[in-house]
From TrEMBL:
InterPro entries: Asp_de-COase-like_dom_sf (IPR009010), MoPterin_dinucl-bd_dom (IPR006657), Mopterin_OxRdtase (IPR006656), Mopterin_OxRdtase_4Fe-4S_dom (IPR006963), MopterinOxRdtase_cofactor_BS (IPR027467), Prok_molybdopt-oxidoreductase (IPR050123). Residues 8-63 form the 4Fe-4S Mo/W bis-MGD-type domain. One of its GO terms (biological process) is respiratory electron transport chain. It comes from Reticulibacter mediterranei. Keywords: 4Fe-4S, Iron, Iron-sulfur, Metal-binding. One of its GO terms (cellular component) is membrane. Pfam families: Molybdop_Fe4S4, Molybdopterin, Molydop_binding. GO terms for molecular function: 4 iron, 4 sulfur cluster binding; metal ion binding; molybdopterin cofactor binding; NADH dehydrogenase activity. This is Assimilatory nitrate reductase catalytic subunit. The keyword Iron applies.
Length: 699
C-alpha cells in the first residue's frame, strides 16, 4: 500500500437517488467523501446503478451552497453572503410582521421528500407548533399521492404490501406505467430472478420502455386510458371463471358493484378507448388471470393523472378479484419514486397528516398529537392547502411568505408561469437547499443545508423498510443540517422549548413515540435494531417486535379486516388531443437523472449522458411532418411552446410524444404540461396533455 495514501474509512449508508435506497459504503479520507463501493444489503445485494455510483460527488461539489445569502437591497438586488444570525433574525422578524398583519396562515412551508424521516417530521411540527400555520405540504404530493390514497382507501394502510425480495415468488408480473429499468434499475434484479424462474411479464405503457422490450406482452396504451384496459381484463377474467370467489366473499367488500361496472368493457370497447388491440388485451387477461401467483407493479405512469387514485384502485380490483393481495409474491406493489417518498408522507409534513399516519381533521387523532406535543388542541391548525393549491395561494397573494426546503418548484410543478408569479410575490421567499436551484434563484434568503451523507437519520424505502443513513462528512463551509436550521428558527420564534433536540437521534426517539399506536407505528424501531436486522419494516409496535415485511396476510387495515373494492368508471384525461393539438404528450424520467435534475445535472458523468431534453416521436409521425432525427423542433401545447431536439424512435405510439422532465428554464417540460389535478389528492396530470410538434420553419 502506498504509504502516502490517506487512511480511508468506510461509512455504511444508502443511496438517496430513488426509493430503492440501495446499501453503499462511502469511502472517507481526511474528513472528505472520496468514493463509494456497493454494500451487500438485502434489497440491492452489492449492486449500484449509474446514479448510485456517482452520488457521493455531491458532497464536495464546487457548486455547493456554503454560506447563508440574502438580498440586502430588496428584490432585484444580488444575493450577498450574510451571517446565520442576520439571515435567521431577518426571516423571523418578517414572519412575525406578516403573521401579525395577515394572520398565521399567511406563512407556509413547502417541504421535500428526499430528506430523512427526522427532517420531514420536524418540518411538519415546525409549521404547526412554531408558526401555527395550516399551510404545510411536501413535494411527494406531485409524486404518488394518488397511490397513497388508493391504498389507504382499499387496504386501510398506505404501504407496499410486500418486500422486493418477494418479486421472484410470482408467476406473472403486470407492470402498469412503471419504467423499472430506468427509474429503479437495481430493482430489475428481482424482476430478472422472477423471469429466470419462468414468470411472465406484461407491460402496459405508451412507450416500449427497456422493461417493455423484454416483456412477453406489451400493451401500448394511449396515455390516460389505462382504466379501459384494466376493466376489460377484469371482465375477461370473470368471463373465464378465474375470479377467486372464496377470497372475495371472505376478505373483501364491494365486489358486486365492481363486477357490474366492468360489464360494458368488452375487448373491442377497450380497444376503441385505449388503442390497444383487443387480441393483446385478451392475451394479457389470460396470462395474468391464469397465473397462480401474480403481482401488479405500478408507478407514476398511472398515478400522475386526474384520475390517478382510480387508476390504482382499478389495479387493486384486479389483484383482489384474483385473491392475490396478502400472498407471498402476490398482489400489488406501488413503486415509490423519491428517495424517502414513503417516509416523507408517514411522519406528518403532509397537509392532512400528523405523525403515525394520523389525520389532522379527525378530532381524537389531533387531540392525541396536540397532547403529545404539549400544545392545546385549539392551537393545532386544521388541514391546509396541498402543494399544488399552495402555489395558487402564493400567486393570488393570500400566502405572503414561504420556506421551501429541498424542492425545485420551477422545474417540478406544471404551468410554471403561475409558479414564477407565485415565487416573485413572496416576500420573503426562503429556500433551504444545498445547490442553487432554479427556484432558489427567486429567493430573498438562501440557507445552505446538508446533503444526505452529511447527517444521520432514517428513511423508509419503497418497501416500508426503515433504514439508517449515516454521516460520512461535515457539510461544507457554514452549511448546516436542515433540522438545526429549523430548531434555530423555532428558538427565535419563542418556541424553542418544543424543539429541544441535540441530535437527529433525539428527533427519531420523539417520532417513535409520536407514531406509537398509529398506522405507521415505528415505536419498536430503534437505530440499533435497524443495524441488527438490516432495516425494520413498519408497523413495529413494540421493542421486541421484528417488524412486518408482509402486510394483509390475514387481515386488511379496517376494523372488519376486509379490503374495500370500488367500481371504477372510465374517465378521459382532462385534455384530449384534437384540433390544432393532435398528439398526446407524456413526460417521465431517464436513467441518468433524478427528479428536477438539480443534483444530477451537476454530476459530470450523468449529465454527459443526458445533457439536454428531447422529444420522442414515432417514425410514421416524423415522416408525415418531414421531421428528421436530431432536428430541433417546436412542441406546443395550449399553455406554452418549447424548442427541443427530436428523437425519432419506433418505441413510442405514433400518436404520442414523450419529453423527460429533469431540465429547467427554457428546457423545462413542465412549461407544457397541464395543471389539472386529481380532485381528492391534487396530483397534477403530468402524464397526458394535448400537443403539437412542428418544424421550426412551420407557418
Ligand atoms: Fe440509488 Fe436507486 Fe440506483 Fe439504487 S437503484 S443506486 S437507490 S438510484
Amino acid at each position: 500500500r502506498d504509504a502516502t495514501r490517506l487512511a480511508e474509512t468506510l461509512v455504511p449508508t444508502h443511496c438517496a437517488f430513488c426509493g430503492v435506497q440501495c446499501g453503499m459504503n462511502l469511502k472517507v479520507a481526511d474528513g472528505k467523501v472520496i468514493g463509494v463501493e456497493p454494500r451487500n444489503f438485502p434489497h440491492n445485494r452489492g449492486s449500484l446503478c449509474p446514479k448510485g455510483v456517482v452520488a457521493y460527488q455531491q458532497a464536495d461539489h464546487p457548486d455547493r451552497l456554503r454560506y447563508p445569502m440574502m438580498r440586502r437591497g430588496g428584490k432585484g438586488s444580488p444575493l450577498e453572503r450574510v451571517t446565520w444570525d442576520e439571515a435567521l433574525d431577518y426571516i423571523v422578524s418578517r414572519w412575525q410582521r406578516i403573521q401579525a398583519e395577515y394572520g398565521k396562515h399567511a406563512v407556509s412551508i413547502y417541504s421535500g421528500s428526499s430528506m430523512t424521516n427526522e427532517k420531514c417530521y420536524i418540518m411538519g411540527k415546525f409549521a404547526r407548533v412554531a408558526l401555527g400555520t395550516r399551510h404545510v405540504d411536501y413535494n411527494g404530493r406531485l409524486c404518488m399521492s394518488s397511490a397513497a390514497m388508493a391504498y389507504a382507501r382499499a387496504f386501510g394502510v398506505d404501504r407496499a404490501p410486500l418486500p422486493m425480495t418477494d418479486i421472484p415468488l410470482t408467476d406473472c408480473i403486470l407492470a402498469v406505467g412503471v419504467n423499472v429499468a430506468e427509474c429503479f434499475p437495481i430493482m430489475m434484479q428481482w424482476v430478472w430472478q422472477a423471469r429466470d424462474k419462468g414468470a411472465n411479464l406484461i407491460v402496459i405503457d405508451p412507450r416500449e420502455t427497456p422493461l417493455a422490450r423484454t416483456a412477453d406482452l406489451w400493451l401500448p396504451v394511449k396515455p390516460g386510458t389505462d382504466i379501459a384496459v384494466l376493466n376489460a381484463m377484469l371482465r375477461q377474467i370473470i368471463a373465464d371463471g378465474l375470479v377467486d370467489e372464496e377470497y372475495l366473499k371472505t376478505r373483501t367488500q364491494g365486489w358486486e358493484a365492481v363486477r357490474d361496472e366492468v360489464e360494458p368493457f368488452t375487448l373491442e370497447y377497450a380497444e376503441h378507448l385505449s388503442g390497444v388491440p383487443a387480441k393483446r388485451i385478451l392475451a394479457a387477461a389470460r396470462l395474468y388471470g391464469r397465473a397462480a401467483t401474480s403481482l401488479i407493479m405500478h408507478a407514476r405512469g398511472i398515478e400522475h393523472s386526474t384520475h390517478g387514485v382510480d387508476n390504482c384502485l382499478a389495479c387493486i380490483n384486479l389483484a383482489l378479484a384474483r385473491g392475490q393481495v396478502g400472498k407471498p409474491g402476490g398482489g400489488t406493489m406501488m413503486v415509490t419514486g423519491q428517495g424517502n417518498g414513503q417516509g416523507g408522507r408517514e411522519v406528518g409534513q403532509k397537509a392532512n397528516q400528523l405523525p403515525g399516519y394520523r389525520h389532522i381533521d379527525v378530532p381524537e387523532e389531533r387531540e392525541h398529537i396536540a397532547r403529545f406535543w404539549g400544545i392545546p388542541v385549539e392551537e393545532l391548525p386544521w388541514e391546509g392547502a396541498a402543494a399544488t393549491e399552495m402555489v395558487h395561494l402564493m400567486a393570488d397573494g393570500e400566502i405572503k411568505s414561504c420556506m421551501i426546503v429541498c424542492s425545485n418548484l420551477m422545474v417540478s410543478l406544471p404551468d410554471n408561469q403561475v409558479v414564477q408569479k407565485a415565487l416573485q410575490n413572496l416576500d420573503p421567499l426562503v429556500v433551504i437547499d444545498f445547490f442553487q436551484s432554479e427556484t432558489a434563484n427567486f429567493a430573498d434568503v438562501v440557507l445552505p443545508g446538508s446533503v444526505w451523507c452529511e447527517d444521520e437519520g432514517t428513511t423508509t424505502n419503497l418497501e416500508g423498510r426503515v433504514i439508517k443513513i449515516n454521516k460520512a462528512a461535515d457539510p461544507p463551509g457554514e452549511a448546516q443540517p436542515d433540522w438545526i436550521i429549523v430548531r434555530e428558527l423555532a428558538k427565535r420564534l419563542g418556541r424553542g422549548q418544543f424543539f429541544p433536540y441535540q441530535s437527529a437521534l433525539d428527533i427519531w426517539n420523539e417520532l417513535r413515540e409520536a407514531s406509537k399506536g398509529g398506522v405507521s407505528d415505528y415505536y419498536g424501531i430503534t437505530w440499533e435494531k435497524i443495524d441488527e436486522q438490516e432495516g425494520v419494516f413498519w408497523p413495529c409496535p413494540t421493542l421486541d417486535h421484528p417488524g412486518t415485511p408482509r402486510l394483509f396476510t390475514e387481515r386488511f387495515g379496517f376494523p372488519d379486516g376486509r379490503a374495500r373494492m370500488f367500481p371504477i368508471p372510465y374517465q378521459p384525461p382532462a385534455e384530449e388531443p384534437g384540433g390544432m393539438y393532435p398528439f398526446r404528450l407524456t413526460t417521465g424520467r431517464v436513467v441518468y437523472h433524478y427528479l428536477s435534475g438539480n443534483q444530477t445535472r451537476r454530476l459530470g458523468f450523468l449529465n454527459s449522458q443526458a445533457p439536454e431534453p428531447w422529444v420522442e416521436i414515432h417514425p410514421q409521425a416524423a415522416a408525415r411532418l418531414g421531421i428528421v432525427n436530431e432536428e430541433i423542433v417546436r412542441v406546443r401545447t395550449p399553455r406554452f411552446s418549447m424548442e427541443v431536439k427530436a428523437l425519432v424512435v419506433p418505441t413510442i405510439r405514433p400518436d404520442t410524444l414523450f419529453i423527460p422532465y429533469h431540465y429547467g428554464g427554457k428546457q423545462a417540460a413542465n412549461q407544457l404540461t397541464n395543471s389539472a389535478v386529481e380532485p381528492t389528492v391534487k396530483i397534477p396530470e403530468y402524464k397526458v396533455c394535448a400537443a403539437l410538434v412542428e418544424k421550426l420553419n412551420a407557418p
